[in-house]
Structures are given as C-alpha cells and as structure tokens.
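Student:
Attend to each token:
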Amino acid sequence: MEKSRFRDAGETIYEFVDNVLAECPRCKKCTKMSWDPYKSMPKLVCEKCGLVAVSPVVSYGGPEFSGVTLWLKTSCCGNTLWEYNKEHLDFLENYVSANIREQLPNINRSLASRLPTWIKRAKNRESVLKCINKLRRKLDDIK
C-alpha cells in the first residue's frame, strides 16, 4: 500500500478566512462571511434572508468566528472539530489522512504546527476522518 504524504507548505489560518461558512443569526441557514484580514472587517451577507452585518470583533480558535457560529462544526473525540470552509476542510483531511507528515523546520506559525494534539494523534485518525466526512456531507447539503 502506498503511503500518503502531507507536506507542510506553511499555510496559516489566515489563508482560509475568506468566505467563512457560518450560521445566519437571523434565519439559521448557512451563509458566508467575507473577510480580508489585511483590509477589512468581517462582513456577513445572507443570501436567504438578506441580512447584512459587519463585525468589528474577530476571534479565532473555536466554533465561532467574529461572534457568529460556524456552519462546519461537529463533536469529535470529546472536542469540537470546526472548519471555516471547503478549503479548510480539505487541508485538514489531507493532514489527518496522511501516513507521513512533513513539517517545515522551525515554523511554529503554520496551521499544521498549530493543530490540536487530539487531531494529530494516530489513535484518533479514524474518528477524526469520520467527523470530516460528516462535515463534508453537511457541506454537500448546502449546494
């Protein structure tokens, strides 16, 4: 069997914050938040109910983004697995499914280096991949 390989290219969480999938605070449907962290504040635009909101508060590291609940989140291994969008989900799936993980030396700000230990553990691989598939189905349901 061929071993899959993940090569850390130094991506940071900022590379996944454009078009964050979130739950609309008004209609509770999936909507998008657009944001360029170097130029603007997060802006939520709901195509379902028409809500437009700009948020000056940005928080990272959990199932909320700028005070709005993320759409792609699920309970996993006693924690919350969350992703901003399809690209973020693809990144995590590539990382978790890899048998060989190559990290850039001395790069502590890359997303791969900052993943929680429970995601990185081999013993959780199957469970995390099942949760990733669950999120992928949720992503497919909004199309």
About this structure: Residues 125-141 form the longest helix (17 residues). The two ends are 34 Å apart (CA to CA). The beta strands are 5-7, 20-23, 30-34, 43-45, 52-54, 64-65, 68-69, 72-76, 79-83, 100-102. The chain has one domain: 5-141.
